[in-house]
Amino acid sequence: MYILTFIFGTLIGSFLNVCIYRIPREESIAYPSSHCPKCSTPLKWDNLIPVLSFLLQKGKCRYCGESISPQYPIVELLNGILYAIFFHFYGLLIDFFFYSSIVSILIVISLIDYYHQIIPDSLVIIIFIITIIHKLTLFILYKTPFNLMNSILALLLGGGLFLVIAIVSKGGMGGGDIKLISVLGFMLGIKKLLLNILLSFIIGAVFSVFLLLLNKKGKKDAIPFGPFINIAFIVTLFFGDRIINWYVLRFLV
């Protein structure tokens, strides 16, 4: 099942690449069918096998010979690996489909923010809707407690904190970041939201220094923050309880 889940994740990853390319251009993600962005030639099924087609074609379009961005196999592999990890933790239960969907959307958001410095409201709204459905489903089927007040307070705390940062930094934090952290806060609750925020700044600082050292970015260049929020979210999702427990035992007990 791990292999099947991984393959399924790579297939979804192929669709994510379509979304990453078309959504910021306000193009339909359903029509026309997949085609080479350079020569516009429609791609056949054997051009669309996740990862494998890229390797067999040596990273080039079969029709025009232009190089294909390594983003395509990387996104497919990443999504497949994450799906396999979620299957390991949750099996084929509700949480698997929920977190897999959320992480796939976050991958799309991260790459769009990286390339275009925007976070589409539509994707953030979809995360919010899926989160509400997930919480209600768990409550109805399994009587899992749903602390609505904690979720609302986390939403307000995350959004409020990033709004203050945006005001103080005079635009250093974008509106998309504010909305994204608000929705993730609603999902995580206050404790894990605070960890998510802390980790996002740590990861952001490390990546920024790395990019500066490689001369990929200058000191005055804008660096999108959405990807750091999303990486921190995944870390919080997998290791949040351990990190929080370690902190409590190490410093507060």
Task: Provide an overview of this structure.
The chain has 253 residues and is mainly alpha-helical. The longest helix has 27 residues. The N and C termini lie far apart (42 Å). 32% of the residues are buried. The mean pLDDT is 90.
Brief rundown of the structure:
The chain has helices spanning 2-22, 52-56, 71-90, 94-116, 121-142, 148-168, 175-188, 190-213, 226-252. It has 253 residues and is mainly α.
Output the structural class.
mainly alpha
- Estimate the strand proportion: under 5%
Mean pLDDT: 90
- How helical, in percent, are the residues? 55-70%
The run of helices and strands is HHHHHHHHH
Could you list the spans in which at least 5 consecutive residues all have pLDDT below 50?
none
Biggest sheet details: none
Q: How large is the count of helical segments?
A: 9
The dominant shape is globular
Instruction: State the end-to-end CA separation.
Output: 42 Å
Radius of gyration: 19 Å
How many β-strand stretches? Answer: 0
Q: SSE layout and pairings?
A:
Elements: H1 2-22, H2 52-56, H3 71-90, H4 94-116, H5 121-142, H6 148-168, H7 175-188, H8 190-213, H9 226-252
Helix pairs in contact: 1-3, 1-4, 3-4, 4-5, 4-9, 5-7, 6-7, 6-8, 7-8, 7-9, 8-9
